[in-house]
Write a structure and sequence with these properties.
- Chain B: It is found in: Cell membrane.
- The complex is a heterodimer of chains A (334) and B (494).
- Helix content of chain A is 72%, strand content 1%.
- By secondary structure, chain A is mainly α.
- In chain A, helix 4 packs across helix 10.
- The two termini of chain A are 38 Å apart.
- In chain B, strand 23 and strand 24 form a beta hairpin.
- Classes of the chains: A mainly alpha (334), B alpha/beta (494).
- Chains A and B meet through helix 1, helix 10 and helix 11 of A and helix 1, helix 10, helix 11, helix 12 and strand 20 of B.
Chain lengths: 334, 494
Amino acid sequence: MSTLSSSVQAREPARKAFGWKKLLRWETLLGLVVILDFLLNAKLSPYFLSPWTLSDASFNFTERAIMALPMALLIIAGEIDISVGSTMAMASVLMGLVAQAGFGTPMVCLTGVVVGLIAGGINGVLVTVFRVPSIVATIGTLSLFRGVAYAVIGDGVLKSYKPDFAYFGQGYVWGPVSFELVLFLVLAIIFAIVLHTTVTGRRIFAIGANPIAARLSGIRVDAYKFWIFVLLGAVSGLASVLLTSRLGSTRPSIATGWELEVITMVILGGISIDGGQGSILGVVLSALLIGCVTFGLSLLNVPGIVLAIVTGGLLIGVVALSSIVGYSGRRRRH
Amino acid sequence: MSEPILSLAGVTKSFAGVRALVKGEIDLYPGEVTALIGENGAGKSTLVKILTGVHHADGGDIRFNGEPVHIGSADNAGRLGISAIHQEAVVFDDLSVAENIFVTDRPRKRGMVDWATMRERARVILAELDPRIDPRMPMRQLSVAQKHLVQIARALSNEARIVIMDEPTAALSHREVEELFTIVRRLKAEGRAILFISHKFEEIFDVADRFAVFRDGAAVGQGLIRDVSRDQLIAMMVGRSVDQVFPKTVVPIGEELFHVAGLSRGEEFADVSFGLKRGEILGVYGLVGAGRSEVMQAIFGLTRPDHGEINLEGRSLKIRAPEDAIGAGIAYVPEDRQIQGGILRFPIASNIALPSLSHLSHRGFMRRADERALAEDYVTQLQIKTSGVGQRLEELSGGNQQKVVIAKWLATNPRVLIMDEPTKGIDVGAKTAVYRLMGEIVARGLGIIMISSELPEVMGLADRILVMRRGRLRATFTRAEATPESIVKAATDA
């Protein structure tokens, strides 16, 4: 490509080619809502602004937020996985058994991640090899994985974890800054870099925006999809380590319904459910927003049912607002 | 000469301040076919949408049998007896044929759908169009041509007096077009007025009695087909005289570049062998379904051939997937630029970069400056009309979209460029630009394999012509030997 190398130096630094204007508008909106809610919380509750309260608030969403990162990749690539809550339960149960068998904390953590990885691999094979639509495949594994968890321990509890295991879900890195929060922020930065600045990220967008054209452009569409499923599974395993560590015990019912909360976070973050659009910054902001709103309400002793209503209303409200703001300027084709 | 059944004068229509129709004028006569001709964006679709009641006209005069009328809704259009058959058959694939015909007014008995009557009436209408279509068949099982017939049946069931056909032949084979025209002539004989929209001049001269040419939203000419020549029509369409629609660049043909031997795959094609030389445009002609695209997709690695050898510059290639073909120097401009060719929501720069990302990155990180420079280079070279390389592909016209797709493949630095129907659905001006571009590409020493279903295109551009029929190569012609008759004979003979 001689034309390429010759013309590069002559040009001034490029403007961002990738629709930043549109993204920024969306993220600005989210950011404003976060700040608004933050101020509202601070005004309504005198305890809210203390560092330790805020630190507590972060436990409210970090595990789900960590899963929302690979889920965003998967939805951008045009697929979905609703089995992640069940994957967590299955991983937690096996971690409990491994701990019961007397293995140390490193082995327990490894088990959690590997179980998640295998679960993701199963979803990936169903979708890319057997061509089952991802929503159908993962409805199946949603039941299957949860079923495995119940089959193994019934209504029992596993809690023979070693004391050092508690660090992942309860530990602090510095002052009131929790391990979970640091992990989330580090992962978010890595995901943002991969998705927005690398060839891999560009290909993921292309796959979601038009899988046929992506395939014809020499992109290994199925391989990408498979590995994102595996990644999401592994991260769900990791989230299971955090949650199990925080609770200090395993029940087969843990993380029930989390899949929908994770997907809510992703959609609220501006990731198009049709694939091909969105940003990690949006997901981070939406995680903060959900965390802020739910914690703020719980400080005011609002019951859990109302929390669910507020989260649902928030999702519908913000998404509807975005489609009014975001698409009114689009040109009509005729 | 009878009076026009429908007459439009000075009809205007704007969308969000953009004037789509400035001076819409057309007369339709009972028992005559009027061809509506114009480049993309000339206002043809807007006119059709006004006639079918999808859009309101902003101003102007519409007269039906001399009386001023107001169409304004699909119901009114139906009441006036206006019925449209669209380019992409608008049908319900999961419903039966009979349900599709009576989609708006099902025969009823005591408030329930009267299935027996519906099927019987459908059978009577279909008997005259294509007796092979059973009213109970699910729509999904029909061919594209048969779906068009069902739409015609829908028009007939409505007692349509004005039938609008919007590029009805775009997806039809030669024989199917002939069958369609037989029916068009029958509709004509029954005294119906037909508005026929097509990009294909052969068809217009074959079937139309009158013409109306639109350019930039305004009627620029109307008259009788027998008084006009093809070149005059083209001149009216583009507003300038096009000396040559098919500018053939003379390029010295070099040594053999690419060779395929004994390529076979299941039922799709068998024993396909051909060579391609440097500087050569190899035309591949055949009917839809002859297996041409299937051969090219196997060469490009989208499917795996059962047998056969592929050689490029003397080396035998093992192609398992498109990335292997791209790496080896083969590029494929697919037939459908919007679904297969480009990503409509992506900016131009990202579209052009997509198959070349590994050259536009450093250790896996995108080099956006390089990406942009590459795109700007091709926008200049190919004269792509755009506000900038950050503009989304969907905002470009069809011809410019096709140029972006071609640019995307040229950027991979190929030796062999396969182009599947490279000018499908783009207007005459853009076609000529693509033909020129093809000439420039082969002048650089590349070889082009061009699949085309348009005879004038194949004959005007190709140095050699392969003809496929039912999965096999049936004939090869040099440019000098080829005649329309011999090519069509090879493509259709049983």
